Known about the structure:
The complex is a heterodimer of chains A (271) and B (156). Chain A is α+β, with helices and mostly antiparallel strands and 271 residues long. Chain A is 32% helix and 26% strand. In chain A, the strands form 4 sheets. Chain A has a 5-stranded antiparallel β-sheet with strand order 4-5-10-6-7. The longest helix of chain A has 15 residues, at 256-270. Chain B is an alpha+beta fold. In chain B, strand 3 and strand 4 (54-57) form a beta hairpin. In chain B, helix 3 (81-93) packs across helix 4 and helix 3 packs across helix 6 (138-155). Chain B is globular. The chains are: A alpha+beta (271), B alpha+beta (156).
Amino acid sequence: MDYIIPGSVREIKKELGTRPGYFAAGCTDLMVLKKEGQLEDRPWIDISRLEELKGIRLEEGCLRIGALATMAELAADPLVKEHAPAMAAAAGQMGSPLIRNLATIGGNLSNSNPAGDTIPCVNALDAVLVLQKENDIREVPAHEFCTAPCENVLSQGEILTAVRIPVRPGKSAFIKLGPRRALAISKVSLAVRWVIEKGLIEDIRICMGAVGPKCMRARRTEEMMKGGRLNAELVSRASHMIGNEACPIDDFRSSETYRRQMLGVLLKRVF
Amino acid sequence: MKINFILNDNIVNIDIRPDKPLLRMLREDLGIKSVKEGCGRGECGSCTVLVDNKPVASCMVPAGQVHTRKVTTLEGLESSGEIKQIQDAFVKSGAVQCGFCTPGFMISAYSLLTGNPNPEREEIRAAVSGNVCRCTGYTKIIDAIELAAEYIRRFK
């Protein structure tokens, strides 16, 4: 097999040429696909040692998370906990400790699975994803990254190098529903960011995962809540609205009706 | 692909297919049999090992990625006092049924207790959540790890 270990992100395209490849970072999805015989005969590009993809730091008013940051690192990092608590919560619930020590944020985002838990988080937190191919670097707003289930804007030879989350006042939270606490793929997930000013909700963004072909925003619920006082009555009204804003499917993980119902329940649990 | 890494304090040089799971390389090429294949897809934890001192599911790690790293299995921890205390606590608590998952549980317990000598029961549950799959009798395993923590604190 062809196993490429590039010396830098810049070299990836040159090493691959026109071939499609599989990026190997945490490998927690790749190795499952391999076991299931779902991989084609393509080269693997082992990016797990690229220092330029590591690290979590504050930079130009943003929290910059390198694509190789693992779920365990995200869950424990003081900067992530302070500036992106939704992301820390999502990362801390994903898989199990044995998976969280391997799985990376770059992999979770780049797989673009509709049930990927970091996706509603980057949407709620209004993040920008940094993509690179050779010397070309572009920044894509989180909501433009995924295009369909398991599809995104990355082109051949291009990789996601970092996530930039603007540091802003306000709170954020993530909550998910799965069949068990560990190793559960979300049936429904919610990431919410909100700002309270003088007792009123000045801004709110509600992002729903696993209830549509890609992450969806509950815009009507957001509008209804904006300007209101965050109390049990408002949350109750919102929880009745939110289920109608998703377009979930019936599948082996859950049913459409249940998913709509649970969006309301999860929204109540957030607040 | 030729790789070299540290396995239980010994340097290993081996020519291996880089996408072979670390689990299979340990069992088939290096004779390490404490590492078990349950599901082979990261969900059961029977193949838990330490890579650079962090517990991971070795079925999820391609052999090419352990080049220059440090891999520790239960065999490599035999001389550590902690593992002896954990073993004793598992026996004392009756925390072993067929034993297939036990090495994985012990590695996760070792990893927890070396960083947190006095864990709450909830912390123990979280630490072994990747090892729990579909058997029963987990309460005794939680009891055992609680007891092991006590043994280790006393032993130190």
